[in-house]
Amino acid sequence: MLGLDPDPARLWAEAASRAGGNGPAEQAASAVAAHCCDLIDAAGPACVAVKPQLACFERLGAPGRIALGAVVAHAKTAGLLVLADGKRGDIDVSAAAYCQSLVGTTATPFGDVGGLGADAFTANPYMGADTLGVLIEGAREAAAGVFVLVRTSNPGAADFEDLELAAGGTLWERVAESVDALGAAGELSDVGAVVGATAPQHVARMRELMPRTIFLLPGIGAQGGRVEDLAPAFAPGRAGGLVSASRSIVFASEERGGSAAEAAREQAEELRAAAWALG
Amino acid sequence: MLGLDPDPARLWAEAASRAGGNGPAEQAASAVAAHCCDLIDAAGPACVAVKPQLACFERLGAPGRIALGAVVAHAKTAGLLVLADGKRGDIDVSAAAYCQSLVGTTATPFGDVGGLGADAFTANPYMGADTLGVLIEGAREAAAGVFVLVRTSNPGAADFEDLELAAGGTLWERVAESVDALGAAGELSDVGAVVGATAPQHVARMRELMPRTIFLLPGIGAQGGRVEDLAPAFAPGRAGGLVSASRSIVFASEERGGSAAEAAREQAEELRAAAWALG
């Protein structure tokens, strides 16, 4: 999975030169869109999905939202799934509004307003199973999926996620049980889990608690995770694990040399080969 | 604090009639902006801040972001603080991007792009203190504040937030200790806590764990919380608690009769009087 976390100050030069529009926000947003589309063209053939990080677009205001829509459309045309990475979570009516925004539509007196049209989105479990339930229900209505944070890839995951519970096990294990229970019956569940690739010692236990769950595995590359350590994620087959990389692909030419696009393509192909060797 | 959770299907009629623009998204967004501005004019004088729920605007796409900007500007002109309610949380670079989006600016080769210009925003602690630290640092640079979810107002708060830890206490108590530790020195901390008004039995304990923290207290009115039960929140003075209400104000005329604006103003004034009687 190709992470799209565009930093307007570090875009591919050729894409940045195609910026249009009036004023910094429109110019930066059009450059960001061009950069992401070029990246999709280069690395997309080695991927099944793109994962735009929503804040990177939101910080450019309304033009950023237009750029995000253009990137989503480009990814879909390229045959890729789109996972909107915003880690949302909120009470009932607000959770439903996030579903409308990301995967659904909004009824208004002026006609229906389409959302982003993502195929899935990430969600934060802190507020409880009722908040996840609303997100999952809204996603199902749109034939979309949800990936719930279980054990993340950052060092601070130890602060709360790893806490030992009085009843036994850790918080993330309790969340994993909830993710397993919330998923629909079937060979693979429709509720996925975000499982940091930087703590591979936990992946086998996660697979035990969530046997039918698709794992989204961020943290490969720039964050230090290694795909070779993730074999248990692929126990249910190749579709059981989605390895996500972002900075290691977009800036691959800094290590590999060559053009940014060529290096990104090679890096993504290598990552695919490494992941599929496990599945 | 006035919650702004506009549902395009339930806007004040007079505001909806002022909709402009082309197509459903622009028309709905302009109607939402008119509605929120009317609500601010009616109930704002009884409030210190507005709390726009971001998903309600995001679901209208780029026009929704323009509407949100207009509402923020209107609230500031009315002398109100703006708390962007998105419950964000993510790893380092992504957390920094949320700060740029909500309270900061983004450097681009085309010039700086301003963010929403909020005075504070809500954050989700699940991923750990390092993710909160980045959000708090970004907020400080913008002279803004952060309110961290501690114990929320929904029934599912019992699922994870209330879990008993092996080391003693609950998860939310551990988060509360972290919120207290992350705040800057001073009479009142610059890191606030979201503390559901629907579980008043916990408020005294929260005040014990977070003596200098400003409590944002949602859940009054439509969610069943009563302001009279929240006295410990105001122990450090009136500024120690921010009581938030949304649906009970915007739809006050359904119970009170009269015009929507008049009923909203009366309802907000009563809530202020009840809260200040405690402070």
Automatic annotation (TrEMBL), chains A, B:
GO annotation terms (biological process): 'de novo' pyrimidine nucleobase biosynthetic process; 'de novo' UMP biosynthetic process
Gene3D superfamilies reported for this sequence: Aldolase class I
Enzyme Commission number, as recorded: 4.1.1.23
GO molecular function, a single term: orotidine-5'-phosphate decarboxylase activity
Main EC class the enzyme belongs to: lyase
InterPro entries: Aldolase_TIM, OMPdecase_type-2, OMPdeCOase_dom, RibuloseP-bd_barrel
Pfam families attached to this UniProt entry: OMPdecase (PF00215)
Cited SUPFAM superfamilies: Ribulose-phoshate binding barrel
Keywords from the named record: Decarboxylase, Lyase, Pyrimidine biosynthesis
Protein name as annotated: Orotidine 5'-phosphate decarboxylase
